[in-house]
Amino acid sequence: MTHVSTLAPPAVTPRETAGRTAPRRSLPVAAGTALGLFAVARLAGLTVVAAVAWATGDKRPLALLGRSWDSLWYLGIAAHGYGRTLRFEPGVVQSDLAFFPLYPALVRAVATLTPLGGGACGLLVSWSAAGVAACGVYALGARLHGRAVGTALVLLWGLLPHSVVLSMAYTEPVLTAFAAWSLYAVLGGRWLWAGTLAALAGLARPNGFAVAAAVLAAAAYEAWRGRRQARGVTHRLWTGVALAPLGWAAYVLWVGHRTGDLLGGYFEVQRRWGSTFDFGRGSARFVRHVLLHGDRFVFPMTTVIVGAAVLLYGLLLADRAPLVLLVYSGVLLLVALGGSGFFESKPRFLLPAFPLLLPFARALVRTARARPWHAAVVAGALAGLSLTYGAYLVVIADTPL
Predict the structure, then answer these.
(1) Is the pTM value of this prediction over 0.85?
(2) At what angle do helices 102-113 and 172-187 cross, to 10 degrees?
(3) Per the record, which residues fall in region Disordered (predicted)?
(4) pLDDT for res 231
(5) 10 Å Cβ neighbour count for 36?
């Protein structure tokens, strides 16, 4: 099924085989299968990370997953609130105000309710959110193209080269969980849910405003279509539109108020971290450096991953995916391409852009039906890449994720 509408009816799956009605698995069973495959993929990733860590002399693999890079900032906010600042050379000031509040608030809540330490609480939040996200990814894929595609979509998302981040104390699983179910609510015309979940997504990460942008674009299209067809637009749509950007806007304005620059304060905080939006000029210069002079393995790998994301977005456009998915994925891709600084983190920024994998998931399902062994080889190759590269990123690379 391909279409350009914002709303999408459930996919119709053929039920007649060999002249009789074939039994259909219930939705919970089918979703459970997808979630089980996702869990196996991530558990395998954890096992490889632990094995590589032990082989290299690091006896604390869980500490690598729970207390690395940005995780330390989030855990600090969860434990002590905002207020930490590190100063380096002139012009480089790293403030914890750059980090959005939802994830540390969840970690703090878990720490209050359990005897677990900060790192363990962070991992519990991230792993739980990853499971909720996987269910949402499955539900969206199944609604659009059937349960087989939904299952393949979840598996591919769990086997991305950089999917080890889904097993770390990072915010991408939380953002993806709210984003997936918000997009699913839009496809079902549930605007209040869509707006509420988009607002929560906006509290999770700076690029969480992509969810609000998608909801606003989809609502605008539905309002225009309703006007053309001389039918009214419900108050639920307008309420969802009003709710969607509140989370992201509230935090940006709060940082602005705290820094004394209401509209520009948050963006100044990001600039002092070395993160600005320059429409890709900085990224292009860095790619040129990598191509001409080479660098650590993580940088050419990042270039390949981002290039693959651009190609997949072209395929998503050609597939005439629903507008809400095109806007959501497009904004995330634009932020990753146009942002300057932290080039090695761009694959992580694209982890929530799971709709980019829809054309690949559909192709994998077609291949599995026609040539099962070919599909198995593809899945095995992706698994091998994901497990080895994930372990390399966490244990060996020593670069920010």
Answers:
(1) yes
(2) 110
(3) 1-23
(4) 66
(5) 13
Token pair 């939040």 is at which residue? 125
- What does the pLDDT look like over 316-343, one tens digit per residue? 999 999 999 999 999 999 999 998 888 8
Percent of the chain surpassing pLDDT 70: 92
Distance CA 300, CA 291 (A): 8
Q: How far apart are CA 319 and CA 382, in angstroms?
A: 23
Tell me how far apart the alpha carbons of residues 145 and 362 are, in angstroms, rounded to a whole number. Answer: 8
Structure token digits, residue 147: 């349960």
Residues 63 and 49: beta-carbon distance below 8 Å = no
Which helix or strand (DSSP H or E) is residue 17 part of?
Answer: strand 16-17
Indicate the average pLDDT of the chain. Answer: 90
178, 204 contact by CB (below 8 A) = yes
Map out the domains of the chain as residue ranges. 30-190+250-397
392 three-state secondary structure? helix
pLDDT band at 399 (very low <50, low <70, confident <90, very high): confident
Alpha-carbon distances, residue 242 vs 28, 51, 190, 237, 249 (angstroms)? 32, 48, 14, 9, 11
- In 18-132, the DSSP E strands lie at 20-21, 85-87, 93-95
Q: At what angle do helices 147-158 and 27-55 cross, to 10 degrees?
A: 10
Instruction: Give the C-alpha separation, 192 to 172, whole Å.
Output: 23
Query: Which tokens in the block code for residue 255?
Result: 């940082």
Helices of type H across 189-262: 191-202, 209-228, 235-243, 246-259
Buried b (16+ CB within 10 A) or exposed e, 278-288: eeeebbeebbe
pLDDT tens column, 25-63: 566 777 788 999 999 999 999 999 999 999 988 778 888
Please, what's the b/e burial string for 335-358 (b: 16 or more CB within 10 A of its CB; e: otherwise)? bbbebbbebbbbbbbbbbbbbbbb
Residue 250 burial (C-beta neighbours within 10 Å; 0-12, 13-18, 19+) = middle
Residue 92 predicted with pLDDT over 90 = no
Closest to 53 measured CA to CA, from 374, 316, 394, 401:
394
